[in-house]
Structures are given as structure tokens and as C-alpha cells.
Amino acid sequence: MAGRAALLLLVLLWLAGLPLARPGAAGRHRYEPSWDSLDARPLPAWFDEAKFGIFIHWGVFSVPSFGSEWFWWYWQKEKREPYVKFMKANYPPGFSYEDFGPLFTAEFFDPNQWADTLKASGAKYVVLTSKHHEGFTLWGSKYSWNWNAVDVGPKRDLVAELATSVRNRTDLHFGLYHSLFEWFNPLFLEDAINVFKTKKFPTSKSLPELYEIVMKYQPEIIWSDGNGNAPDTYWNSTGFLAWLYNDSPVRDTVVTNDRWGVGSICTHGGFYTCSDRYNPGHLLPHKWENCMTIDRRSWGYRRDAQLDDYLTIEDLVKQLVETVSCGGNLLLNIGPTHDGHIAVIFEERLRQMGAWLKVNGEAIYGTKPWRAQNDTVTPEVWYTFSPKEGQVNAIFLNWPISGTLELGEPQAKLGETQVKLIGYKELLKWVALGEKGIIIALPQLTPKQLPCQWGWTLQLTDIN
Q: What pTM value is reported for the model?
């Protein structure tokens, strides 16, 4: 069986016009299609240094833009009452989900404008949903006939346009999300009935798509999702990843996540996501990512959102600081509209994040976790460490009314320790408390004189 599987993989690669394995390539470590081998691959350094990325959920679900990007499933499979009532009230009898396809128009989609907004956010990478569980591809896939953005709706290769603009106008790394399974694909449903002993869907649809997006767009992140309750052996995930790491055009820089089949999440792959909105609040031994949404209730855009469904900038800065202090990256999601517009509230949040990072970015980008993640005396104080400068960054989210900030973790050295507030020129005065920490006198500033509005950074050098 193993021989047949290897032969099938070679045939797939050949059919897709992909480079086959080069056994004679000298000096390169080659990864085996096993988790033991793949998990040993070092994560490319750029990912840990980046710290902050933007997730974009966009697809046919952006047309009804009601409730959730799981609209089709909730309406047709689970028959949830709000979705059934919404369709009954607003669309004619017999209207199918496929009928939303031509209405996904993207007439306001300006990839240059998107790229400029992404750059302004301070993010260092972006991940676009190339295909969600509905199966609609945002590129003209050979394997998604008449259910893709080139054949239906915008009649444009949305992936290519955004990739080009991001690469031409920003320094962000470009990544793609790809759903392994599709809710209502007949081939997948047939394999599921056969308890995944047949593999019609992955061999004819899912795997060819993955090879296609890598060869066509060379993404530096493959963000896999949606295992459909099937094991990684059904998806041939280890076979694909071995090719990705050994022979693909992005083999040296690509990073992957942990969603490659039942049992792989938080266990196998590149960085761990563990669950949506994962934020453990403590240091983990493996690189991880907190993927979360500005809209608390949905990843896709929804017209029924209320103002208090959106996280405030204070909420988002707190998420970023907590995540980075504990060794994670933050992947912050927005959902554009069906016509290709980034809603003003999403744009405002992204630009606010960028404004905060413009001041405090040196306490985020390229940092490492310190020996303590948060302070033991004062709540809402989180630490990072800047290895090149040898300094500890204490990011405090509440400006104390007293004008002094007590920190229990750093131990100062008399005559040596220096304390600086990022965005303020003069050194700050402090009093050492021995093993109990340090008290720092903050400058007396008016609100307009503050370096930023939603969290401030102290840089401490020469501390124990």
C-alpha cells in the first residue's frame, strides 16, 4: 500500500507540472513524509520575529453576510431558525447557496488600497482565505470548475491581485488559508460514508489545489483548516508537507500550522494554533499563534453586527501584548464585504494598531519571552525581552493615578539600571526595593503629551 501511495503522489505531482524530488541535491536535509521527521524542521526565523499578522475571511459567505461565514451549513444542514427565517424573508423560494456566487461581485476591490491598509496596521504578514469550507476558490482553480472567482462573480483572480499588491507595496509575507474539506462536495461526502477508506476527494480536489496555490502564488504561510473529521492519512498531509519542505519553491521560507487532520492540532505541524482565539496566558514550549477576530461572533463580514460586537483598540492591544509576552503571534481577522470593501470599523482598528506599533514596535517585533511573562505586583503589566539591546520591556496597560509604577519582577542595580519610557526623551527616576522589585516615577504628562493612548512601554537596561 505504501508503494502505491508513493506512486500516486508522483503521478499527482507530474500531472500538476510540479518539480519532483531531487535525490541528488547535495547538502540539503530531506524530510520524510512522517510526523517525526516533519516536526523536527526548524521554523523559519521570520515568523517568530514578525509577531503580528492579519487574517482575511472573504468568500461567497460575504454575500448573505448574515450570522456567520458558516451560513451555508447553518442554513441548509443544521437548519438554524435565524438563517431559515432570513432566507425566507429576503430571497425567493428555491434560491440556493450557489445562487449567491454571481452576487459575489468585488467591484470595489482595490488590492493596492488593501495592501496600503495592511501596511498601515503594522502587521508583518497576511493570510487570505483562498478557499473556505464552501469550496469556492478565490483563484481560477482547475479543480473547482464553475465555482471560483474567475468563472463566477468577480471574474478576477483575487488571490493573484492581492499577492501582487502586497509584494509590490509592502514588506509583508503573503500567506494563504486553505480548507481541506468542503461541506457539501459529493466526492467528500462519498468518502465520509466509506469511513475515509476511499480517497476520491483529496486526490482529485484538495491536494491538487494545495499544489496549485503553492506553485502559482508561492505563499510563505500555508494555513490549513477543516479536517472534516478525517485523519491526516486520508488527506496525505505528511506527503504534501514533505514535498513543501523539500522541493517546493517556498521550501526555505514557508511556515505551516497544525490543522492537517484529526489529532494533529496542537501536536504536529509548524506553529500551533490549538483552537480559535487561543490565548493560554502562559509561556508554551512550542511556537504558537492566537488567531482571533475583531468581530467577536464571526470571521466573515456580517451586516447584523452591533457596535459592541467589535473589540475596542484597548482589547486588541491587550491581546497583542499578552500573546507576544507568552511567545505567540497574533493573527487578527477582518471580513471584507461582498463588493470588496474593508468596512470602516475594521480599517480604523487596523490603523490604530499601526499607530500603537509605530511607538511601541521595538517591544514587540523580534523580541523573545522574558523569564517572567507578567508582573506579580501590578496587574496588566506584560514583559518582553529585546536580545540585541539586552533590555527588558515592561508594557503597562493602565497609567497609574499615583504617577508611580511598582514592578515586582525586575531587580535594579544601583548606579547601573536605566529606565526609559518609549516616546519620552528623558530617563526616569526609580527606587530599588531589593528582591521585591522597583518603583518607577512616571513623567507628569497631559493626555496630549503621552507617547500613545492605549498602553505604554518602559525599557529597562542593566537589571538582574
A: 0.94
